[in-house]
Each structure stands twice: as structure tokens, then as C-alpha cells.
Amino acid sequence: MVHNGLDDVVVAETVLSDVDGAAGRLTIRGFALEQLAGQRSFEAVAHLLFEGFLPALPGPDAFARQLGEARRAVWHRVEPLLPALATRPVYDGMRVGTALLDDGTDLASALALLAAPAVLVPALLRLQAGEAPIAPEPGLGHAADVVRMLGKSGGEAALDCYLVTVCDHGLNASTFAARVVASTQAGLASSVLAGMGALKGPLHGGAPGPVLAMLDAIAAAGDAEAWLRAAVDDGERLMGFGHRIYRTRDPRADALKAAVRALPRTAGRVAFAEQVEATALAVLRQHKPGRVLETNVEFYTALLLEAVGFPADAFTAVFAMGRVAGWIAHAREQALTGRLIRPQSRYVPPASAAA
pLDDT tens digits, residue range 92-144? Predict the structure, then answer.
């Protein structure tokens, strides 16, 4: 039996995360998402993911300090090349910069890869805006340093919550790609770059930006219900709704909704988004009664990252900033099994050969 897309095919056992689509529950290393997002820092959750997979892993506090030092080390490695990297779209510049790092499998390699998107993304964005990049401050928390390097303030807790929320999510396309590469015994950088390649695709990591375009179009039209009904009637996808796994509301959406609500100067934008969300859910239930299309992580991701200060074309790169922790942990978990991932395919001769 062929399972196109590998739906419902179990190809690995993992201690890292579990996605219960029927119940709308995400578990990360034994903790419900609600116990981590907004409750623990990104560094603490990355440390939780790495436990047992990296030799010489220090305690959480020392790990956070070492991650700060890794940001500074990555900065010194990439700073001379930033102007050249900034000539490319930010996601591509981030990938090229990450490819400059050593392809090891030790703690130092993991820390550098965890630090790389956090350093590269704000630096490239500032250069593309005609501003000088800002060097890391190792003594700050990871998310706080990213916001500072971006030249912003006030969104540190929200960004930290976001990075935790997206750090791992079962065997998604990018994580599977990272595990396939890790199974060959390639280094962590190779696995992370495979994950970045998969995440770039709009069917995986590229949808939060269009949520803002949808909200702006609805605001300009002045009638949310009419706009949404016309879009559904025309067969358009409503951005921020529906998920391949979740058959109920995406739990990450609620975590991000709470985080963006706590940000200053977002009350009007959030209130409008909540109105659009409620209207969209009602329209979808009426027009597509046989399908479960609930709010997913993309809807409030767009609002949160916009409020922190990231442009829409950088949203997928910020996604990688959080998901890199999961890629590293999965790559190490896979490599330690010692088993090469090698599925089978069924050969279907072309019609001309049969004739």
C-alpha cells in the first residue's frame, strides 16, 4: 500500500514532541505547550530538547550563558560577509550565513547553529533598511538580544513566547528532512540546512505573511463577512485557518494570541483580528460543513511578529530561528540510533514502455 505524503506512517520513535491532532494538544519533552510558552525561556526549552543528546551539556543557566557567547562568536564569523549576504532575500542570506559554520556534532556546533539565525536575521534586515547592524550582547536573554539587534524594544517576552511555541512540532516536513540527513551521519549544520530548505516552501513555513495582506484587504473593504464569503466562494484559501494535522484549534494559536495581547499599542489591531477570526470561522463552518478548519498558528504569528518589528518577508526566517532547536535535537536523536533512513518506492513503468 502506498501512502502518498506518508500520512499516518510512523517512521521514528521520539521523546521530543507529540502532536495530538484530534485533541488539539502539543506536548514537548513531556510538557504541554501551555506549561512552556510564556512560562519558560527559549534557552530553557532548547536545553530541555537537547538533554541526553549532546555530550557535555551544562545546566540551564550555564547553557544560556554559552548561547550568549555563541551569538558573539557567530557575529565575528559572519560580520565581514554581512553586506554580501544582505544582497539576497533575508531567508537566503540566513541560509548562506549558516552554511559557513562548522559541520560538527558537538555542543559547540549546536550552540553556533542555535545562535546563527538570531544573529543573521536582524543584521540582514538592518542592512537592507540602510542601517548598520548591531552586534550581540551575550549577557542578554536570547529573544531580548534579537529584539535589541533589530533596533526595537518592548517585544522581548512576545518573541520569546513565539520561539518556544514553534521550537518543535512532531515529524513535520523540515524536521523529517533534518532527520534524513542526520541518519547519514552528516553533521548538524547539514541537517539544519536541510530543515531550512524544507521550511522555505510556502506549504510549510511561508504562510504567516499573507495573513497580514488578508487583514489589510478586509480592513480596506470595510465588510469582513462580505470579503470572506466572496473569497471562499471563489475557492480562495483563508490564510491562518486549517491545518493538516489538527482537527480542532491549533493550541499554538492561543499561546500566541495571549502573547500579542500583552504587547503595547496592539489593542486595536488585535481586536480587529479577533473580529475577522470569529467571522471567518463562522463562514467556513457554513460553506465547508464537512471540514474542520480552525485557527492555526499562522494567524496570530503574523500579528505578533509584525508588532515586534519584523517585516512580513522575514517571518519564515524568524520561524527558523525557533525551529532550529527542534532540528538540532531531532538530528542528534536520529544519529544516535545509527540507522540510515532508506524507504522504498514502487516503480510504475511509463505507458510507452508497456506498449
Answer: 999 999 999 999 999 999 999 999 999 999 999 999 999 999 999 999 999 99
Alpha carbon of 275 to those of 153, 250, 280: distances in Å? Answer: 28, 18, 9
Three-state secondary-structure class, residue 18: strand
Question: Which residue range(s) make up the domain with 120?
Answer: 12-204+312-337
Q: Which entry of 47, 142, 243, 330 is annotated as an active-site residue?
A: 243
Domain count, the chain: 2
Q: Same domain, yes or no, for 187 and 216?
A: no
CA-CA-CA-CA dihedral for 153, 154, 155, 156, to nearest 10: 80
C-alpha separations of 193 from 63, 179, 182, 349 in Å: 23, 11, 11, 34
Catalytic residue among 156, 298, 306, 333: 298
Provide the terminal-to-terminal Cα distance of the chain, rounded to the nearest Å.
25
Q: Is residue 350 part of a domain?
A: no
Is the distance from CB of 325 to CB of 45 less than 8 angstroms? yes
Contact 256, 147 (CB under 8 A): no
Q: Which residue type sits at 282?
A: A
Stated pTM of the model? 0.92
Give 230-249 pLDDT, tens digit per residue: 999 998 888 878 766 666 67
Active site residue 169: no
- pLDDT single digits (tens) 151-209: 999 999 999 999 999 999 999 999 999 999 999 999 999 999 999 999 999 888 766 67
Residue 322 lies in a domain: yes
Q: Is 243 a catalytic residue?
A: yes
Domain shared by 65 and 146, yes or no: yes
Coil vs helix vs strand at 132: coil
